[in-house]
UniProtKB/TrEMBL annotation:
<keyword id="KW-0571">Peptide transport</keyword>
<feature type="transmembrane region" description="Helical">
    <location>
        <begin position="721"/>
        <end position="747"/>
    </location>
</feature>
<feature type="transmembrane region" description="Helical">
    <location>
        <begin position="114"/>
        <end position="134"/>
    </location>
</feature>
<feature type="transmembrane region" description="Helical">
    <location>
        <begin position="182"/>
        <end position="203"/>
    </location>
</feature>
<feature type="compositionally biased region" description="Polar residues">
    <location>
        <begin position="1"/>
        <end position="12"/>
    </location>
</feature>
<feature type="region of interest" description="Disordered">
    <location>
        <begin position="1"/>
        <end position="85"/>
    </location>
</feature>
<dbReference type="InterPro" id="IPR004813">
    <property type="entry name" value="OPT"/>
</dbReference>
<dbReference type="InterPro" id="IPR004648">
    <property type="entry name" value="Oligpept_transpt"/>
</dbReference>
<keyword id="KW-0653">Protein transport</keyword>
<dbReference type="GO" id="GO:0015031">
    <property type="term" value="P:protein transport"/>
</dbReference>
<dbReference type="GO" id="GO:0016020">
    <property type="term" value="C:membrane"/>
</dbReference>
<keyword id="KW-0472">Membrane</keyword>
<feature type="transmembrane region" description="Helical">
    <location>
        <begin position="514"/>
        <end position="533"/>
    </location>
</feature>
<feature type="transmembrane region" description="Helical">
    <location>
        <begin position="271"/>
        <end position="287"/>
    </location>
</feature>
<dbReference type="GO" id="GO:0035673">
    <property type="term" value="F:oligopeptide transmembrane transporter activity"/>
</dbReference>
<dbReference type="Pfam" id="PF03169">
    <property type="entry name" value="OPT"/>
</dbReference>
<feature type="transmembrane region" description="Helical">
    <location>
        <begin position="623"/>
        <end position="645"/>
    </location>
</feature>
Length: 819
């Protein structure tokens, strides 16, 4: 068997046979396809950074120490590798040791059962996510939750539907398999989102005279959801196929899928541990979430001094917008892993984000207590606009209606009369560092990963566009996607290609023309519907938005794929729209819908395509399920939005809402659109918040010192390890929300990604992602049940009695700073 660090003479030779099976020369037989060996080629490394040996997610080192192939069965017995497995340094190590590099091509996803489970969960996810968007407490339907639920439903159907007769064999042809499971999860994942277009449409209905056309609203929702899919699909060769495009968020999901579908004799212990942890965290989460919530934010400093406002700002973090949460200890996995488990976040990302996190605390406290931008006349943390009459004891919200024309554009003269609104210093800090992070990302990727990102626009060539526009391309559905033998060999011999993708060379690929048609139709439909909807967004603004979508898909998408980190682009797109369409908040919202929403949809497509690749689901099955899920989800999003806005309009427009319905998210989108519509008066050079715009220039410069130092001192790996884009983003991360979990997040992340991965790699292989998946799954099931049982999701909240461990509105006992 193939062993890490084994002598070449002890490694079995793997020969590719015409029937695509694998023959081991030591007579070991297998019924699964295995990955071909990656040729060791020192002249052709995939990593373009300066140091081959550095801790760099995405680096590929093909050598005897880190072979590209490891048998799936061998990988499932990590104890056999104990003492032999070296530190897991690269993406190659992760994808070949943690995930079995094998495939059973006899498994079929094309069953009625898969479509039944997939469409059912798509309806469930699409409806639930849109409903939760209009709730006081927004709960997100996670892929891990859908994975566990799909497995339960599929297994039940397989167990209870008889297989006798033609109908029985059609409904239940064979046991529920991993590829059916993957297809159903991808379909549901594509549906379980809340389309940003429904946010813009809600605002237009509630505050801007209504949407002129229901049909146009439906097609805007469909096209804005699909346009990002089209762009991302055409970039698969850049953002999906290479090994370094790891998408670490998928590793726990793939790990649990593998554990659930391998024969229990092979994974009995892992299977047992998964369900024990799943049940344990499900029971435990009732304590920090409901019974004993002080466990979610234990602050020794606030307990020691409950009368210090400074302590509240620095150490508080149990309530929304309370404080920085510095040195708090959190025992609530829901908050620790709220934006991604620290157990799968790569160590390089964790390190850079930790540097930014510490710097952000210093920067935010410094801005506030230096009274920059009159910071102390407004709350320490808030995302609202404030009137200049505010002071340290009375915060006055800005009245946007005083500056609005009858046609729902901004009266710039009225702005001069009423006054330009103020923002909190922490929010301005967030805007500055976010903008700097954007341009730093572009420069960082060009300096360190130019070879990869430059491929992102290779498909936009005159010859390829002409070929796509030929009449024969109109019959895109006739393309089989079958590769020639030369194309297969090129993939098998390319050391940059993911070993899991190599196993799929015999599956017909989805032609780029399919994704191009999705993209082109989305553009045409979007332009037409925006005109019908009186969106005020000009045609040239839409085209500029599409070009930005393509540009950022390459740079931001590559960074997300390699590091698990991505910049929140919504405020950036809203700022750009503010300068391009001054005084037009509706244009701002629709521009953001087609850019920011298109970008996030593209990331989701690529993330789920990687999940399909790791589970060996054929490309055409993946395309089919994702398109069905996206369309079903978008339609249901729109239907639910129409119903909710029609029946709950007074509550959605009120500041308080109710314990059942709230328009807080819609109101915030509208407020930001108005703010960015007067961007020249707020953010231009010479204006009060000029550094928000000047930050773009700072971001261009930020990566240069690290790159220059690495060129002069290449032996010092620290310079190539630092990522200015991630550091800058986290300088402003703590501007909103509950921040008490961050210390625990970094402690657990360092334990998994540094200690286990480097010093106990066999434990890391066997347990790290499985434990993360169990904790995520059990927590999310608990949150889902609790939302409807006691948190008010069903209409009535049931509060737990107050006691020392449940101190409502002030869980950590910090001095309560009421807004």
């Amino acid at each position: 068997m193939a062993r890490t660090g084994a002598n070449e003479s002890t490694t079995p030779v793997i020969e590719r046979q015409p029937d695509d099976e694998v023959v081991h020369t030591d007579s070991e037989k297998t019924t699964s396809k295995k990955a071909a060996e990656i040729p060791t080629d020192e002249k052709h490394p995939a990593h373009v950074g300066p140091d081959d040996g550095q801790e760099k997610v995405g680096e590929i080192v093909a050598s005897e120490k880190h072979p590209a192939h490891i048998s799936g069965d061998d990988r499932l017995d990590p104890e056999s590798l104990e003492g032999e497995t070296g530190p897991l340094e690269t993406a190659e190590d992760i994808v070949t040791h943690v995930i079995a590099v094998d495939d059973d091509p006899t498994l079929s996803p094309w069953t009625f059962r898969m479509f039944f489970v997939g469409v059912g969960l798509s309806v469930f996810g699409g409806v639930l996510q849109e409903i939760m968007y209009f709730k006081p407490q927004v709960v997100y339907v996670s892929v891990m939750f859908l994975t566990v639920l799909a497995q339960a439903l599929g297994s039940a159907l397989s167990e209870f539907i008889p297989r006798k007769g033609a109908i029985g064999r059609f409904l239940n042809p064979f046991p529920w398999n991993r590829k059916e499971h993957t297809a159903a999860v991808l379909m549901a994942s594509a549906a379980a989102v809340s389309a940003l277009s429904t946010e813009a449409l809600s605002v237009q209905q509630l505050w801007y005279g209504g949407y002129p056309s229901t049909a146009a609203g439906i097609f805007i929702t469909l096209s804005s959801q699909l346009i990002g899919y089209g762009v991302a699909g055409m970039m698969r060769s850049v953002l999906l196929y290479p090994t370094k495009m790891l998408y670490p968020v998928n590793l726990p999901i793939t790990t649990v899928m593998e554990t659930l579908h391998k024969p229990k004799a092979e994974t009995a212990k892992r299977y047992k541990v998964f369900w024990i942890l799943f049940a344990a965290i499900f029971c435990w989460e009732w304590f920090p979430e409901y019974i004993f919530p002080i466990l979610s934010a234990v602050s020794i400093f606030c307990l020691a001094d409950q009368n210090s406002g400074v302590f509240t700002n620095l150490f508080g973090g149990s309530q929304g917008n309370e404080g920085m949460g510095f040195l708090n200890i959190c025992f609530d996995w829901n908050y620790i892993a709220g934006f991604g488990s620290p157990l799968w976040m790569p160590m390089q990302t964790l390190t850079n984000s930790f540097i930014g996190y510490l710097g952000g605390i210093i920067l935010s406290m410094g801005l506030y207590y230096s009274n920059i931008w009159r910071a102390m006349d407004f709350p320490f943390m808030s995302q609202l606009l404030y009137d200049g009459s505010s002071n340290t004891t009375n915060y006055v919200p800005y009245n946007e209606t005083l500056i609005m024309n009858s046609d729902f554009t901004i009266n710039l003269d009225a702005v001069d009369s009423v006054g330009v609104p103020y923002m909190t210093a922490t929010y301005v800090n967030y805007l500055i560092t976010t903008n700097a992070s954007l341009t730093a990302t572009l420069i960082h990727m060009l300096l360190w990963n130019y070879a990869e990102v430059s491929l992102g626009w290779t498909w936009i060539t005159l010859s390829k566009i002409k070929s796509l526009l030929r009449p024969s391309s109109y019959y895109f559905w006739r393309s089989t996607g079958t590769r020639t033998e030369q194309e297969k060999e090129a993939i098998l011999n390319d050391p940059t290609i993911d070993p899991h993708y190599r196993l799929m060379v015999d599956y017909p690929e989805v032609p780029n023309s399919w994704y191009f048609v999705v993209f082109a139709l989305s553009c045409i439909v979007g332009l037409a519907c925006l005109y019908v909807m009186d969106s005020t967004l000009p045609w040239w603004g839409f085209i500029v938005g599409v070009l930005l979508l393509i540009l950022f898909m390459v740079f931001i998408g590559a960074q997300y794929a390699m590091t698990g980190f991505t910049v929140n682009m919504q405020p950036i797109f809203q700022m750009l729209a503010g300068y391009m369409f001054p005084g037009k908040p509706l244009a701002n919202m629709y521009f953001t819908t087609y850019t920011y929403n298109g970008l996030t949809q593209g990331f989701q497509l690529l993330r789920d395509l990687k999940l399909a690749q790791q589970n060996k689901l054929s490309p055409k099955a993946t395309f089919t399920t994702q398109m069905i899920g996206c369309v079903v989800g978008a339609l249901l999003n729109f239907v639910m939005m129409i119903s909710i806005v029609k029946n709950q309009a007074p509550l959605l427009k009120s500041a308080e809402g109710s314990n059942v319905w709230s328009g807080a998210q819609v109101q915030q989108f509208n407020t930001l659109a108005i703010a960015w519509s007067i961007a020249p008066k707020m953010f231009s050079i010479g204006a009060r918040y000029q550094w928000v715009t000047a930050a773009y220039l700072l971001g261009f410069l930020a990566p240069l010192p690290f790159y220059i130092m690495n060129r002069f001192f290449p032996q010092q790996r620290i310079w190539s390890y630092l990522n200015a884009a991630i550091i800058l983003w986290y300088l402003g991360e703590l501007f909103v929300g509950l921040n008490a979990s961050i210390t625990s997040y970094y402690i657990l992340g360092a334990f998994g990604q540094f200690y286990l991965r480097r010093y106990r790699p066999q434990w890391f292989i066997k347990w790290n992602y499985l434990v993360s998946a169990a904790l995520d799954g059990g927590t999310q099931v608990m949150i889902f049940i609790a939302t409807f049982a006691v948190f008010g999701g069903s209409g009535k909240a049931v509060a737990f009695p107050e006691w020392a461990g449940n101190h409502p509105n002030n869980l950590d006992y910090c001095k309560y700073n009421s807004l």
